[in-house]
Design goal:
alpha+beta, three-stranded antiparallel β-sheet, 2 helices, 6 strands, about 25% strand
């Protein structure tokens, strides 16, 4: 049987795996820099962020109904978060970069009730070129375009 060398010759060059690793590192670094600088953000991203918040609110409302424990949607300068009504600690904030959706002053707290009696509300998202509304009917949140 043949003997396989245990070390590489200095003239062997680089392997395909090494090249792919380097290209992956360059792609990840470039992508992170572009996101940090704001390149690549579009109106689709704006809509996706609003839709993600609507899904989060609907899931929290469903969770409140299933567990019997109220949830609170908190809006503030840091973004938004969902907190159990009797929570001692709160989860981290979800920020929505480059959007105006928060209350004009201070913070707001909207209760998602465990007894299906949540108060409906509407939040307006203002983007550079588009406005959207997040409408919560007491059970489900949905995103609609501005009229």
């Amino acid at each position: 049987m043949g003997h396989r060398p245990t070390h590489r010759d200095s003239e062997a060059g680089v392997t395909l795996v090494e090249i792919l690793v380097v290209l992956s590192i360059i792609a990840i670094t470039t992508g992170a820099a572009m996101l940090r600088l704001g390149f690549g953000r579009s109106e689709e991203d704006f809509t996706a962020l609003a839709a993600a918040m609507a899904m989060t609110v609907t899931a929290a409302s469903d969770d409140a109904l299933q567990t019997g424990l109220d949830r609170v949607l908190q809006l503030g300068p840091e973004g938004y978060r969902i907190v159990a009504a009797d929570a001692v600690t709160a989860p981290s904030w979800h920020s929505i970069p480059d959007l105006t959706f928060r209350p004009a002053e201070g913070s707001a707290a909207l209760r998602l009730s465990a007894d299906a009696a949540s108060t409906p509300f509407v939040l307006r998202f203002e983007g550079a070129k588009q406005s959207l509304f997040l409408r919560f009917d007491g059970l489900k949140a949905r995103v609609e375009g501005a009229p």
